[in-house]
């Protein structure tokens, strides 16, 4: 298999290199407070059969990947939810069981291998919490030094995780967007590899592995895939994976991908309606998708439009309800951003055929943000002093 970079805006091709993150031409037009310009997509050239090894479709040799089991996550057949909704071919891809309990491990794994291949031992990134704890964990397995910039509001569990893995953690006086800018400034001065989502092409490329696995796990190719969306890298990675499968002649078309946003953090949804991105402060219970400026906005929007994808939004209440529904009816406890895709499916299922092959991706584990999960349940009252009290 041969791999190159291709600019998603001006289409210029480049050889893959460790110091090339965005298209040098398009980045000159970059303005502050807008999505990243000149995002480089990895293109592949070659042949593969349906029993390919996922590593063969990645641009870094298997020997460089750290010894930690990322991916190969289970595809659930949730019979209670199937009964509840009438969707007999509904599947849930549970990415909350990755080593650091979120989908982000798919990106960190490839970034770590890419850095190792190029002899780089320092990795720097901004994160709402999961990308940071993910890079910290994968970096620990690889023996790499990880520096993380987080917003002030990052959930405690994600910070503790990162510290346990041995990363250097900084909280910034502000939001994720400020952390993003700080991390770029820091890596420009200090060197090392920047793993900012979208900015580092390997983040999107690593995320495509979920689609490759779905293809190999499903009895038939999916018709619809639901993905929760903040920066728009997961959704782009999901589409990229199916695009590669199509290029290799293994599927006939890319499934309809639903990008699901939170009602008050809906920058991609708004840009799709209005044609431009505005920097409006956002808020949602789903911290992992709370993003003012979606860094992969231009690219994600283009992919969604090119392949018939849809962008929808759901309320925080429906996210909390979806989280509890998933947990209580199938035993799958996902964090609010992880359950957002399921909330999206519940919102639009009336528009879909009940026998369609549907995959909902759950992107993170519920224990990552216990404070939000508590909103969907009633905590036990005062401690009881005898069983008689509750009979
Ligand atoms: C990062 C993340 C998302 C959203 O991914 P983007 O690439 O930012 O759109 C969704 N769910 C979880 C749990 C995440 O950590």
Structural description of this entry:
By secondary structure, the chain is an alpha/beta fold. It has a domain of 202 residues: 3-Layer(aba) Sandwich (Rossmann fold), CATH 3.40.50. It has 13 helices and 13 strands. The strands form 3 sheets. It has a 6-stranded mixed sheet, with helices on both faces. Strand 10, helix 8 and strand 11 form a beta-alpha-beta unit. Helix 2 crosses helix 3, helix 2 crosses helix 6 and helix 7 crosses helix 8. The chain is globular and about 70 Å long. It starts with a strand and ends in an 18-residue tail after the last helix. The site of pyridoxal-5'-phosphate (PLP) has 20 residues, from helix 8 and helix 12.
Primary descriptors:
binds pyridoxal-5'-phosphate; single chain; six-stranded mixed sheet; 391 residues; alpha/beta; Rossmann fold; 13 strands; four-stranded parallel sheet; 13 helices
Topology (elements, then pairings):
Blueprint: E1 2-7, E2 13-14, E3 40-45, E4 75-76, H1 79-85, E5 90-94, H2 105-117, E6 122-126, H3 130-142, E7 145-150, H4 156-164, E8 168-171, H5 176-190, E9 193-194, H6 201-207, H7 209-217, E10 224-228, H8 233-247, E11 256-262, H9 267-274, H10 297-306, E12 310-314, H11 316-330, H12 336-348, E13 358-362, H13 370-373
Parallel strand pairs: 5-13, 6-7, 6-9, 7-8, 10-11, 10-13, 11-12
Antiparallel strand pairs: 1-2, 1-3, 4-5
Helix pairs in contact: 2-3, 2-6, 3-4, 6-8, 7-8, 8-10, 11-12
Structure in a nutshell:
This protein has 391 residues and is an alpha/beta fold. The chain contains 13 helices and 13 strands. The model has no long low-confidence stretch (mean pLDDT 96).
